[in-house]
Amino acid sequence: MAKASTATTIDSSEAAHFGKLAADWWNPTGSSAMLHKLNPVRLGFVREAINRHWGGDARDFRPLTGKTALDVGCGAGLLCEPLARLGARVTGVDAAHENVAVASAHAKQGGLSIDYKCADVALLEGSFDLVTSMEVIEHVTDPALFVAALVARMASGGLLILSTPNRTSRSRLAMITLGEGLGAIPKGTHDWDKFLTPDELQPLLEGAGLRVVEMRGIAFSATAGLHLSDDLGLNYILAATRA
Fold it and tell me: Are 92 and 41 in contact (CB under 8 A)?
């Protein structure tokens, strides 16, 4: 088993910001409303990636049965709970203890057994078949260290799925000028300078021994809302395996 790093990827100010949102996280019209809109799109990609990687049947309701999953930066569990319903034994890790408390309570109310931890993935031990991290890498202290920590948690034959905003003028306008400016996203959530372009993120993954096998954009239109797209200009999601 690979030993955990002694370095940390957690930015304490970021953890504090998201911890303040914990109580409202599961309110689909509250401060995390945008995440509730984004989550089904991400889940669609996750399900396709799972089927492709493990050769599953699209009609199977529990394709992760017998597998372990780790969601890093899990918040209050918006992704952990669907992964558990897909059959995985799920561990959720978050830097904010408030999020972990809300996530644990919500899972218990839903009859789901999910192991939540307030911890840094760089200090975690164990290995997991599926490792996910959605909209997190743009909030950490060191993206390269964070990627290495994610890879260290991947089991042999494992799958990594990661999503993040792209650093473009369009993402600045949509997420910060309009999103935060008009109150759809809590003010102070994003630092545009910390967004990673695909050309910056892919070498970090390759340097950690991974190969990107799928990358899709998460785009928005007035008719389709948020949806998977070939347009990476706003936000993107990728799947990677060991090279």
Answer: no
Question: What is the arithmetic mean of pLDDT over 82-88?
Answer: 97
Claim: this prediction has a pTM higher than 0.90: yes
Residue 141 near residue 8 (C-beta atoms within 8 A): yes
Of 125, 94, 119, the residue nearest 107 (C-alpha): 94
Question: Does residue 70 contact residue 50 with C-beta atoms inside 8 Å?
Answer: no
Mean pLDDT for 218-234 is 95
CA distances in angstroms from 243 to 24, 61, 123, 240, listed in the order given = 40, 29, 24, 9
Q: If you search the block for the tokens 């809300």, which residue do you land on?
A: 102
